[in-house]
Amino acid sequence: MTLSGYEALFFWIFALSAIFAGLLTVMARNAVHSALFLISSLVSVAALFVIAGAEFIAGVQILVYVGGVMVLFLFVIMLVNVGAEEMGREEIFNKQKQVTASLIFCFLLVGGVLYAVSEGYRGLQAINSQKVAEQTALQAARTQRLGTGATGTSRITEDTQNLGALLYRYGSLPFEIASVLLLVAIIGSVMLARTLKQEASADDVDPETLQEEIASDPELAKLELRSE
Amino acid sequence: MLNFFIPTLAFLFQSRLVDGLSRMWESAKQPDLSKFLVVGALLFIIGVAGVLTRRNIIVIFMSIELILNAANLNFIAFSRYLQVTNPANAVAGQLFAVFVIVVAAAEAAIGLGIVIALYRNKETIWVDEIDLLKW
Amino acid sequence: MYKYIWLVPLLPLIGAAINGLLGRKLRFSEQLIGGIAVGSVALAFLISVAAVYSYGFGGHAHWPNPYLTSQDGFSFDWIPGGAVSVNAHSHTAQGAEGASEGTKYALLNVEWSYQLDPLSAVFMLIVTGVGLCIFVFATGYMHGETGFYRFFAYMGLFMFAMLVLVMGSNFLMMFVGWEGVGLCSYLLIGYYFQRQEAANASRKAFITNRVGDFGFALAIFGIIATFGSAQYTEVFNLAKGYPIEAIGHWGVLSWIALGLFIGACGKSAQLPLHVWLPDAMAGPTPVSALIHAATMVTAGLYMVTRTNVIFQHSQTMLLVVALIGMATAIFAAIIGITQNDIKKVLAYSTVSQLGFMFMAAGVGAFAISIFHVMTHAFFKALMFLGAGSVIHGMHHEQDMRRMGGLKKYMPYTYWTFFAGWLAICGIIPFSGFWSKDEILWNAASTTVIPLGWLVWLVGTIAATCTAFYMTRLMALTFWGKERFREKPEHHEIHGEHGHAEHVPHESPRSMWAPLVVLAVLATIGGLVGIGAAFKPITGSDHPGGKLHIANWLNPIIWNPTTGEFNVPHGAEHEPAAPETAHAAATETAPAHGQFVLAPYPDTGFNLAHAVDGVLHSHLATEWTFIIISLLVAGIGIGLGMLFYVKSPSLPDAWAQRLRPLYNASYNKFWVDEFYGWTITRRVMDAARAVYSFDSRVVDGIVNGLATLSRGLSQVVGGIDKYFVDGIVNTVAAFIKELMSPLFRAAQTGFTQNYALVMVLGLMIAVATFFASDIARALKQFFAAVM
């Protein structure tokens, strides 16, 4: 799967962009800046997905990750509304001990991972070299057979069809489970984020606790509580 | 001090350095699977560093998203590689990436709900102020 | 018909069971309870009559042989015992069943079967017949009592026990019945259990009985050890072969007879075990009539007569029996003169008459003693029921000093009581005359024991006293002034309700009808025992053949002269039985030397022979004694009339003159007080001593051990708490001091610390996994660098 030419160039552009944006995510002072840097990182990664031939996933990434999750993040950041951070009076990093230890470990990890990747890839190459050669040719032939896009240069791949076939044929159970998971997440998040007032009016509060809360917050008493 | 050592080392090992650099340039001109993996690994480590280092809880969550993304990148890279080596099961990587995205979304929703509940109770988003388990 | 005698004890038992178990639960009415009880006894009576008739007079009459139900298959293997070792000196080993040479064992198999022989026939008829009259009376007398069902249940149970006693075929059945009647006596005397005096009296009766039962039980053990069996037929067959033990020679049969007689003393209230009978009057009157006049107290007589073989082998015991009977008779008669409670008078009269019966047995006239049992049952039951009727009519007033002149208020009661009075005084031709006269005649003419004349003399005096106090009773109760109209004295004896005047009334028919029946029997009942004195009129010694009591009972009386049963005394003189006489004459002394299988050694002065010597006519002698006994009866009645009808001031005057004797008589010779002081209180002292020993010493030891254990446990607990736990706590504190800061420092509560540790752990895990590869790579790197 060796990339070459413009693919290689764009690969490097987007790879460096992703890494750089990720770094800035972690180092930004303002949380909104962090969110925006993360968005750019995610978009770069989506581009990398396209280069790697997973167009559908790239689309899903943009739609769901960037369009859903990051928007949610932004909502929450707004909700939380930390003024001191913006004004630069708060510390953004932890105490020194923690940071030092983390950085040491991270550098160790970097070294280890890089070495492991290179060694691993060499081994992989050694095993698969012949196959790679064959399959590359076949792959090229296959791509020749695909239809072209409007411009005549890019091919209309069958990535989505393949993924869909696999998903609904072999991955149907995990699919259903994932949908249940999403349902649970929806209910859970709604439940977690309720205010006391909302809980009291839905009659979900223990009476004793309610009495304590009313004692500390007289506004609650104004609610018409269904149980009484 | 560093101003002294680095040039000295560079001078001493210059041949090796040059050798290594040229090799690197050649491989960079033709990026393949290993480059993808490296990119993923670096993103992962950056995410880990962010989780361990930042005080703002929202930023920690975003670092976690970075980590998940890195994992996704790995999956997709291998999916592409497998298209060449083992075409029949290649799409499995993308399939798994779909699920990772699903889980990430669910986890983000719940997590942010917790953050909101936590903020309502403790009026803070700094994690080092949330230390009830401290002895 | 005699096959069905096993029904006779069973029917009252069934009636008792129904009444007792269901009477209260199903709330039977009084009529139903009474009906069941009376019906069961009536049926038993009818079956008894039919059985006795067919036994004695029917087509397949068994008389004179005893009939055992086991002959027809009705017998139950009650105690299938094994080998019983038999007294080495006994004669059983020779020729006994199941015995083997040299080992002296016999097989003891006790069965539950009934025996119908002359003696048990008489008792069956008395018990069921008189019992039937008393049951009918009781349905009227006990009317309105809350424990009506209980009364009849106990009475039925008593009938069962008494019938087992008299109908049993072996000593163990007799013992069962013996105990059973003792139990029922206890239950019935204590019928009014809420009254302290009734409870005390029932306990006294039971315990006194038990003293006697102890002797009886020892005697039974002796019988089994000596004869190897408990069955009457076997025992008596073996016993008749034993030598007679004359006075001065005390052998095994004397021991057995002694034990038996102690039992009889307890049951039949002879001196010194008579104390329970007067107190037993605390029970309802029908109970007194049935148990303490007619049936239970005669069980002793039954037993003595049943074992007359054994008694007749021991001359000493016969003397003892006669003397104690005599002493009891006079003793109780003297006490009876001064008593004021109508039932107490009758009770002492019963004791006295029982003394007469034992006198008869002691002088060898066993059939006559049974005859007196029969007539006494009739007239004493009659008088007790009459007293019950009086008490009922007088609204439960029992003190004779507050009665009087009841003749015109209670005619039936009066005339029937009149008949009983004449019977007990011994006026011809009432039943009491025949039996009492025969007793006195046999006492005077006995050749069985010495001192026969003394027995006669004391018996005659006792008969005089009997007539006297019975006349006193009649006078105080039925004749004379109506003292119940007088205002009661300021300290009353029965005085919860100080009612001034209650006009006495006659009892209902259910109560006077049995009285009439018994009065008829008291009048004509003596005709079955007309004595030899009337031979000129009747033509035979014992007129009536089998119907004469002496003839009827002959098969069970052993004749010491001939050594056989069923030979009447005196028959050995008749030429009609030459073989028997020849056998007697040629009977050689057995191997045991001095003792003679012959009439007893010379018994000294014999009154009858003395009179005979003067008058030279046997008949005249007999008539002399008859005249004397009628005379003394007349004297007694006359004195009674004088003292209580003619001049009522005389009793007090004479009581003053004979003050010591009067006091002794009134206080019952202080026997109860003596027993209390010597026995009862000493036993209670011993009980208290044992109790204090138990509670102080034994319980003290136990409690002390418990306290010791508690102290020990406290010590151990202290050790555990302070020493052991101290060690543990010190060690724990030491470790805590050491480690606590270390572990505490790890609990920062800071999530990212935990995350850092997780990452570290992950790295270590991966590194461990790839350890060899990492080592290789490092080596290569250093190799490359160097």
Tell me the number of helical segments of chain C per DSSP (H or I, 4 or more residues long).
29
Q: Mean of residue pLDDT of chain A? A: 84
What is the CATH first-level class name of the domain at 1-88 in chain A?
A: Mainly Alpha
Under CATH, the topology of the domain at 1-88 in chain A can be stated as Four Helix Bundle (Hemerythrin (Met), subunit A)
Structural class of chain A: mainly alpha
Please sum up the structure shown.
The complex is a heterotrimer of chains A (228), B (135) and C (786). Chain B is mainly α and 135 residues long.
Describe this structure in words.
The complex is a heterotrimer of chains A (228), B (135) and C (786). Chain A is an all-alpha fold. Chain A is 75% helix and 0% strand. Among the domains of chain A are: 1-88, NADH-ubiquinone/plastoquinone oxidoreductase chain 6, subunit NuoJ (Four Helix Bundle (Hemerythrin (Met), subunit A)); 100-146, no CATH class. Chain B has 135 residues and is mostly helical. Chain B contains five helices and no strands. Chain B starts with a helix and ends in a 13-residue tail after the last helix. Chain C is mainly α. Chain C starts with 6 loop residues before the first helix and ends with a helix. The model of chain C is unreliable at 92-101, 495-500 and 571-597 (pLDDT under 50). The interface between B and C is small, with 13 and 10 residues.
Task: Summarize this structure as a short list of keywords or feature phrases.
heterotrimer; B: 135 residues; mainly alpha; Helix Hairpins; 5 helices; C: 786 residues; two-stranded antiparallel sheet; two-stranded antiparallel ribbon; 6 strands; 3% strand; elongated
Topology:
The complex is a heterotrimer of chains A (228), B (135) and C (786).
Chain A: H1 6-27, H2 31-51, H3 55-80, H4 83-86, H5 96-145, H6 159-169, H7 172-192, H8 196-201, H9 207-216
Helix pairs in contact in A: 1-2, 2-3
Chain B: H1 2-12, H2 14-29, H3 33-53, H4 57-85, H5 92-122
Chain C: H1 7-22, H2 30-56, E1 67-68, E2 76-85, E3 105-112, E4 115-116, H3 118-141, H4 148-167, H5 171-189, H6 196-227, H7 232-239, H8 252-267, H9 276-279, H10 285-294, H11 299-306, H12 308-313, H13 315-338, H14 342-362, H15 366-393, H16 411-425, H17 431-445, H18 452-478, H19 509-524, H20 535-538, H21 549-553, E5 558-559, E6 564-565, H22 578-585, H23 607-615, H24 618-646, H25 650-657, H26 659-666, H27 671-746, H28 751-769, H29 771-785
Antiparallel strand pairs in C: 1-4, 2-3, 5-6
